[in-house]
C-alpha cells in the first residue's frame, strides 16, 4: 500500500486542516475566474460599459453590447461537451490546470485588444476557460471535501462572484478618471492574477479520491481520504468508512451502464432525474431576473433616474458588497435550512421585489422625486440580496451533489452548456426588452419566477448533510453503500431508509 507521504509528495502538508485549507484556497482561486474572471467580466463589463473611454473606443451599440456579453457564454457552451470527457480521462486537477491556462490567454488578449473584434475573440477564449473551470472546480470540490465542509466549499464558489464584482467595481471606479484606454485595459489585465495563483496552488492539493478509485488507484484514494480526514492516518475508522462507501458506489456504477456520454445521461430514469435537476438549476439561475442587474445595472439605474456615471459606479460597488454578505449568509445556512427551502424562499423573496422594481420604474422613471428613486434602488438591492442568499449559493452546490460519480463530470458539462445557453438568451433578450417594453420586463420575469418556485417545490430532492454516496440512494436505492458508521464531523450515516423511498417518486 502506498504511504500517505508518497501520495502527499514534497509539497502537501501533513495535517488535515492544512490540506482542507489548501483545497479551499484552490476552490477559492478557481472561483475567481468564473467569479473574478467572470465577475470581473460581467461586473467589470458592467463598469466598462459605464466608462466613457471604453464606450468611445469600442463604439458599441445595443446589439454589439449584447454580443460582447453573450460571447463569453458562447465560449463556455462550446467547451461544455468536451469538459466532462477531459475530466474523466485526465483527472480533476488537470481540468483545473487547463482552465487556468485558457483563462490566462483570454485575459491577456482582452487587456491588449486593439479593436472590438479582438476584444470579442478574447472574451470567447476567456469564456472557454471559464466554462471548463465551471465544470472542473465544482466536480473537484464535491469529490474531495468531507460532507461537513462540502456546502461551504461549493457555496463559496459563486459567493466569490460578488467579491470579484466588488474588486472589479472598485478598480473600475478607481481607473474611471484615467483619460486614455488604460482606464479599461488595467482592470482587464488584473484578471490574470487568479489564473496564475491557481497554477501555483494546484501542486499543493490532492487528486479526487473518487476519480482515483475509478482509475483502479484505490491505495492512493485511501491515503487522500486519510490526508483530508485524519491527518494521514489510513487506519482511522471514519476514513475507512468513507473509503468503503466510495469503493462500493463506484463498483456498482462500473457494473451498470455508465454515463460516459451526454446521451447516456438521459437513458435511465435515475439519470434523467439527476440531469433534469442539474439543468433546472442552470435555467432558474439565469432566468430568474438576476441577469438584468448582472449585465444591465446601468440601464436599470438610468431608467430609475440615476444617470451620472460615477454615481452608477458607486452603487455598483455597494451592491456587490451587499450581495457578498447575503451570499455568505446563505452558504452558512445551507446545511441548516436545506437546499429546497433555501431555493424556494430565496426565489419567493426576490420575485416580490422584482415586481416592485417594475412598479416603481413605471411610476417614477421620469420623476424628480428623490424618495421614489431611492425606493427603486432599494428594491434592486433587496431583489439582488434575496437572489444572492439562496441562488448564488446553490448554483454549483446542488448540481454536483445530485449527480453520481460516473455522471458528474459530463453532467456538469450539460449543466454548463444549459447555463451558458440560458445566459446567452438572457443577454440578448434583456437589453431589447428593457429598451422596448421597459418596466414590463420586470413584471414578466417575476411572473416566470412564480413558476420556478412551484417547480422546485414539486421536483427537487433534499441533499443536506448526506455524503455523495448517500445521495445516490435517493435515486438508486440502498444497493451499493456498504456498512458505514457514524463518525462525528463527517456525517457518514450509512443508509437512511426512513427518509428515502429508493427513488420511486423520482422517475421521469
UniProtKB/TrEMBL annotation:
Coiled coil: none
PROSITE patterns named among the record's database cross-references: MFS (PS50850), SUGAR_TRANSPORT_1 (PS00216), SUGAR_TRANSPORT_2 (PS00217)
Membrane topology: Multi-pass membrane protein
GO cellular component, one term: membrane
UniProt entry keywords in alphabetical sequence: Membrane, Transmembrane, Transmembrane helix, Transport
Record-linked Gene3D superfamilies: MFS general substrate transporter like domains (1.20.1250.20)
Signal peptide positions on this chain: none
Highest taxon, organism lineage: Eukaryota
Keyword presence, Glycoprotein: no
GO-annotated molecular function: carbohydrate:proton symporter activity
Record carries keyword Lipid metabolism: no
Domain Major facilitator superfamily (MFS) profile: 23-464
Compartments, record wording: Membrane
Transmembrane segments: 20-39, 66-87, 94-113, 119-142, 154-176, 277-297, 317-334, 341-360, 372-397, 409-430
Pfam family, one: Sugar_tr
Family membership noted in the UniProt record: Belongs to the major facilitator superfamily. Sugar transporter (TC 2.A.1.1) family.
Protein name (database record): Major facilitator superfamily (MFS) profile domain-containing protein
Organism listed in the record: Exophiala spinifera
Amino acid at each position: 500500500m502506498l504511504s500517505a507521504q508518497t501520495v502527499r509528495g514534497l509539497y502537501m502538508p501533513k495535517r488535515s486542516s492544512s490540506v482542507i485549507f489548501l483545497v479551499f484556497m484552490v476552490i477559492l482561486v478557481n472561483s475567481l475566474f468564473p467569479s473574478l474572471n467572470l465577475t470581473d467580466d460581467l461586473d467589470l463589463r458592467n463598469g466598462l460599459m459605464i466608462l466613457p473611454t471604453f464606450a468611445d473606443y469600442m463604439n458599441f451599440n445595443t446589439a454589439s453590447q449584447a454580443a460582447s456579453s453573450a460571447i463569453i457564454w458562447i465560449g463556455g457552451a462550446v467547451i461544455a461537451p468536451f469538459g466532462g470527457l477531459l475530466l474523466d480521462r485526465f483527472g480533476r486537477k488537470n481540468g483545473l490546470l487547463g482552465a487556468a491556462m485558457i483563462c490566462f490567454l483570454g485575459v491577456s488578449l482582452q487587456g491588449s485588444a486593439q479593436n472590438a473584434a479582438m476584444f470579442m475573440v478574447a472574451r470567447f477564449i476567456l469564456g472557454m476557460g471559464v466554462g471548463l473551470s465551471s465544470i472542473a472546480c465544482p466536480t473537484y470540490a464535491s469529490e474531495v471535501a468531507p460532507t461537513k465542509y462540502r456546502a461551504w466549499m461549493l457555496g463559496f464558489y459563486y459567493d466569490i462572484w460578488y467579491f470579484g464584482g466588488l474588486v472589479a467595481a472598485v478598480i473600475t471606479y478607481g481607473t474611471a478618471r484615467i483619460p486614455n484606454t488604460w482606464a479599461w485595459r488595467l482592470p482587464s489585465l488584473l484578471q490574470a492574477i487568479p489564473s496564475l495563483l491557481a497554477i501555483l496552488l494546484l501542486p499543493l492539493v490532492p487528486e479526487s479520491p473518487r476519480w482515483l478509485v475509478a482509475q483502479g488507484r484505490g491505495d492512493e484514494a485511501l491515503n487522500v481520504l486519510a490526508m483530508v480526514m485524519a491527518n494521514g492516518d489510513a487506519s482511522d475508522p471514519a476514513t475507512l468508512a468513507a473509503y468503503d462507501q466510495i469503493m462500493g458506489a463506484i463498483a456498482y456504477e462500473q457494473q451498470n451502464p455508465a454515463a460516459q456520454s451526454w446521451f447516456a445521461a438521459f437513458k435511465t430514469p435515475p439519470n434523467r432525474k439527476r440531469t433534469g435537476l442539474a439543468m433546472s438549476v442552470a435555467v432558474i439561475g439565469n432566468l430568474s431576473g438576476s441577469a438584468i442587474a448582472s449585465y444591465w445595472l446601468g440601464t436599470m439605474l438610468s431608467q430609475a433616474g440615476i444617470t451620472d456615471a460615477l454615481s452608477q459606479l458607486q452603487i455598483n460597488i455597494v451592491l456587490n458588497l451587499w450581495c457578498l454578505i447575503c451570499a455568505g449568509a446563505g452558504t452558512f445556512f445551507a446545511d441548516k435550512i436545506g437546499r429546497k427551502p433555501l431555493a424556494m424562499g430565496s426565489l419567493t423573496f426576490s420575485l416580490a421585489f422584482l415586481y416592485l422594481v417594475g412598479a416603481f420604474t413605471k411610476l417614477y422613471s421620469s420623476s424628480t422625486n428623490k424618495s421614489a428613486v431611492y425606493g427603486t434602488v432599494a428594491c434592486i438591492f433587496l431583489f439582488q440580496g434575496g437572489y444572492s442568499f439562496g441562488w448564488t449559493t446553490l448554483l454549483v452546490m446542488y448540481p454536483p451533489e445530485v449527480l453520481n460519480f460516473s455522471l458528474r463530470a459530463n453532467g456538469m458539462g450539460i449543466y454548463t452548456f444549459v447555463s451558458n445557453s440560458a445566459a446567452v438568451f438572457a443577454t440578448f433578450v434583456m437589453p431589447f426588452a428593457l429598451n422596448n417594453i421597459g418596466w414590463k420586463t420586470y413584471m414578466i420575469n417575476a411572473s416566470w419566477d412564480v413558476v420556478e418556485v412551484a417547480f422546485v417545490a414539486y421536483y427537487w430532492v433534499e441533499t443536506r448533510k448526506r455524503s455523495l454516496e448517500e445521495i445516490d440512494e435517493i435515486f438508486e436505492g440502498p444497493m451499493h453503500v456498504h456498512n458505514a458508521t457514524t463518525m462525528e464531523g463527517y456525517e457518514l450515516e450509512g443508509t437512511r431508509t426512513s427518509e428515502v423511498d429508493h427513488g420511486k417518486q423520482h422517475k421521469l
